[in-house]
Specification:
Layout: H1 19-26, E1 31-35, E2 38-41, H2 42-58, E3 66-70, H3 75-86, E4 90-93, H4 100-110, E5 114-118, H5 122-134, E6 141-145, E7 161-162, H6 163-169, E8 185-190, E9 200-204, H7 205-219, E10 226-229, H8 236-239, H9 241-247, E11 251-254, H10 260-270, E12 274-277, H11 279-286, E13 297-301, H12 308-316, E14 319-327, E15 332-336, H13 348-355, E16 360-361, E17 365-371, E18 387-393, E19 399-400, H14 404-410, E20 411-412, E21 415-424, E22 430-435, E23 440-442, E24 445-447, H15 449-456, E25 462-472, E26 476-485, H16 494-502, E27 513-516, H17 530-537, E28 546-547
Parallel strand pairs: 1-11, 3-4, 3-5, 5-6, 6-7, 10-11, 10-12, 12-13, 13-14, 26-27, 27-28
Antiparallel strand pairs: 1-2, 8-9, 9-19, 14-15, 15-16, 17-18, 18-21, 20-21, 21-22, 23-24, 25-26
Helix pairs in contact: 1-2, 1-9, 2-3, 2-6, 4-5, 12-13
Organism: Triticum aestivum
Protein name: 4-coumarate--CoA ligase
Domain AMP-dependent synthetase/ligase: 22-401
């Protein structure tokens, strides 16, 4: 049997790019992309991507060259997920919420050959490119993505290239490079850097393909869904659903911003069936204009652990939520809270509590586990014993670009170390409890800040909260709660907050300090920057309430 060779008929390198020609063949006349007054079909999207790939090759883009893009959820952003790898290049989607300095760091580290920039971000790109030039680093070729629905004419300095003009010059019949090795890089994504400097994560064609397939199966996505892009495509390539929606012949509804009115309007106008988002989008949808949906919308949420109370509220207005857990290094989602039919018989609050767990590994992974990071042995399945969440499988990244020290630390004992702390419940479902750096060790006891935050959010006066460690003269560390009041003008009573916590948790877990602030510091992905709060807490005394 070992002598049976691979042949072109029985071995084709796996790549998510292959979903596009299939979509053109199978769903050719079906709408692929909707944006404002504009609509494309899958056959048109396929042709446009081939044109762009040919144009990139004509510009001198070659295998493993990095093509960066700074844009919101617009058709060009979607098309580049196929066109750039079709040219054998590596796609680098940049977070539009970053500042110029951070964008410049990415462009320099990635050594981007071409940068596409949406017209709204020309000033940001200009400033970033100036920083790159001042550092003496090569400046990439730049092309502006003008608004395809309502062109503005905006260009960037001496760079006169424009996306649609460039695309029009590409030959859709041109011969494009073929993929020889599925281990080749397909995308380069940068971590959000909540606990350290951003790192360049390299993912393979094979990993992206398998993660996409696993994602569709785990979420149960059928043929021809209507998908609303509330999740930024720059965030782990839309959790690989940029490619996944082509696999299912979906209608991709693109909107530039997640305003509540725009989201509800899109759901109503296009009959949206699916969307993804971080929990912060739920807060946007629940504030002011919360509407009960006329038909259910399936939502995959992740990026930060949602509270059971938040899941309860959004499900009551018609969103059917599936909770997932992932990270850039896993090429997107790594676990999903697969639903069990017997749970449907439970009261909604209990269903929401179960749904808040991160769940079981997606099908693209060989395994996910929670281990003692010293011995690498599995923790007991008791829902209490803490350990580090580890992953193994073909959708795990190739590694960090030009960062051997980080790679050595990330891969250990045949596992990828996520840096997230969790527990395993008796049914095998994993629940994240904290980042390893966010665990508070008080008198030898581990305290998960997430658990405290969930309790504090139940207090009627608390709108938002983050808990970090602060120094304690006796216990070493003790919890400090930074909270945002629902009524900014009202005073928050420390005694009431402390009493509220004491009724719901062990005494050693109760925050010794409550600090009221106007808003929690968040990074460009909406994640709380706890490093800043820890810095502030180092100078506090564990006693009275204060207001910053």
């Amino acid at each position: 049997m070992d002598k049976l060779p691979k042949r072109p008929a029985n071995y084709v390198p796996l790549s998510p790019v292959g979903f596009l020609p299939r979509a053109s063949a199978v769903y050719g006349d079906r709408t692929s992309v909707v944006y404002g007054r504009l609509k494309f079909t899958w056959s048109q999207t396929h042709e446009r991507c081939r044109r762009l790939a040919a144009a990139l090759v004509s510009l001198g883009v070659r295998k493993n060259d990095v093509v960066s893009v700074l844009a919101p959820n617009v058709p060009a952003m979607y098309e580049m997920h196929f066109a750039v790898p079709m040219a054998a290049a590596v796609l680098n989607t940049i977070n539009t919420r970053l500042d110029a300095k951070a964008v410049a760091v990415i462009l320099r580290h990635a050594q981007a050959k071409v940068l596409f920039v949406d017209y709204e971000y020309v000033r940001l790109a200009h400033d970033a490119l100036q920083i790159v030039a001042d550092a003496g680093a090569p400046v990439p070729l730049v092309a502006v993505i003008d608004d395809i629905d309502r062109p503005t004419g905006v260009r960037l300095g001496l760079f006169k290239l424009e996306y649609e003009a460039l695309l029009s010059k590409g030959d859709p019949a041109a011969e494009l490079p073929s993929l020889a090795d599925e281990w080749d890089a397909v995308v380069l994504n940068y971590t959000s850097g909540t606990t350290s400097a951003p790192k360049g994560v390299v993912s393979s064609h094979r990993g992206a393909y398998l993660n996409t397939m696993g994602q569709l199966l785990s979420w149960g996505v059928g043929n021809e869904p209507v998908y609303l892009w509330t999740l930024p495509m720059f965030h782990c390539n839309g959790w690989t659903l940029t490619w996944g929606m082509a696999a299912r012949g979906a209608v991709n509804v693109c909107i530039r911003q997640n305003r509540a009115a725009d989201v509800y309007r899109a759901i109503s106008d296009y009959g949206v069936t699916h969307m993804c988002c971080a929990p912060v989008v739920f807060n946007i949808l629940l504030e002011g204009e919360a509407r009960r949906l006329t038909a259910p919308v399936h939502v995959l949420t992740g990026g930060a652990p949602p509270t059971a109370a938040l899941l309860d509220r959004v499900e009551r207005i018609g969103f059917k939520v599936t909770h997932s857990y992932g990270l850039t290094e896993a090429t997107g989602p790594a676990m999903a809270c697969e639903w069990r039919h017997q749970w449907d018989l439970l009261p909604l609050p209990e269903r929401s509590r179960l749904k808040a767990r991160q769940g079981v590994s997606v099908l693209s992974l060989a395994d996910a586990n929670v281990v003692d990071d010293n011995t690498m042995s599995s923790v007991p399945r008791d829902g209490k014993s803490l350990g580090e969440i580890v992953l193994r499988g073909s959708s795990v990244m190739k590694g960090y670009l030009n960062n051997p020290e980080a790679n050595e630390k990330a891969f250990k004992g045949g596992w990828f170390m996520t840096g997230d702390v969790g527990v395993v419940h008796p049914d095998g479902y994993i629940e994240i409890k904290d980042r390893s750096k966010d665990v508070i060790i008080s008198g030898g006891e581990n305290i998960c800040s997430k658990e405290l935050e969930e309790v504090l959010l139940q207090h009627p006066a608390v709108a938002d909260v983050a808990v970090v460690a602060m120094p304690h003269p006796h216990w070493g560390e003790t919890p400090c709660a930074f909270l945002v009041a629902k009524d900014k003008a009202a005073e928050v009573c420390k005694d009431e907050v402390i009493a509220f916590c004491r009724e719901r948790m062990s005494r050693f877990m109760v925050p010794r300090k409550v600090v009221v602030i106007d808003a929690l510091p968040r990074n460009a992905l909406g994640k709380v920057e706890k490093v800043k709060l820890r810095d502030a807490a180092r100078n506090l005394v564990p006693s009275a309430v204060s207001r910053l």
